[in-house]
Write a structure and sequence with these properties.
Number of helices: 11
Structural class: mainly alpha
Distance between the termini: 39 Å
Helix content: 55-70%
Bound molecules: fe (iii) ion
Largest sheet: none
Radius of gyration: 16 Å
Shape: globular
Number of strands: 0
Length: 187
Amino acid sequence: MYQIDDMRAVLKNKLSEKRYEHTLGVEYTAAALAMCYSADIEKARIAGLLHDCAKYFPGDKLLSKCKKYDLPVNKYEKNFPELLHAKVGAYLASSKYGVKDEEILSAITWHTTGRPEMTLLDKIIYIADYMEPNRDKAPNLSTIRQLAFQNIDLCLTTILDHTLTYLKENGSVIDPTTFATYEYYRR
Ligand code: FE
Ligand code: FE
């Protein structure tokens, strides 16, 4: 497996400056959340670093990679192939960066849509991706940032709630996995 420093060096080369800064933001935010909830700090850092490692590929490239590596693509992903950066990212984390840890690979795989029954590390990466310090678009960020360190599940449902409302207001089609995650955690 690559050392964290080497991962950073490769990513700095591949990603845009903005995406790289975001990546570092997710790395240390995930580390802080891992400290707060006694999760594995190193795993959180690695998952944070690599979560967007396939983000620089355009949609058609992501689709062709899925075909090549035999990764399943659903109907929704076919229409919105950018979503596939998560699955392809997990694939690259394993094949290129040598990460074989299932928890890390799962957190990378589910970082955009979430999923029902998320692990602690899944939640940490999902939340860190939403609230890392370089983010400034979401309207409720200060609440989310406080909540993240107080009640991780409530933080998660709050994010899902806002995401679903936002998607609905914009008339966007809602990814079935995002919706399933929302339905699962709403209860
Ligand atoms: Fe992403
Ligand atoms: Fe991200």
